[in-house]
Specification:
Elements (H helix, E strand, L loop, with lengths): L12 E8 L12 E8 L30
Antiparallel strand pairs: 1-2
Length: about 70
């Protein structure tokens, strides 16, 4: 049997997007690498987190090396 006491732990997940090797300007065809950092700021584990990142207009996704978790 399962007991549901109606308690939902407070989750606090943060996300930050930055450009790796930021330059002052880019030309058409230049490659831009984005880094997404997701942080669990709560006292509880968070599972099944999904991140959808929209690329800026006129940007094409190039297959990368994937992701790393720590």
């Amino acid at each position: 049997p399962t007991l549901d006491a109606g308690f939902l732990p407070p989750f606090d997940v943060g996300i930050e997007k930055s450009v790796v090797g930021l330059r002052s300007s880019y030309l058409p065809g230049d490659q831009v690498t984005y880094q997404l950092t997701i942080t669990n700021n709560s006292a509880y584990p968070v599972y099944n987190v999904q991140v959808n990142d929209l690329l800026p207009q006129n940007t094409t996704f190039v297959e990368g090396a994937g992701f790393s978790a720590s």
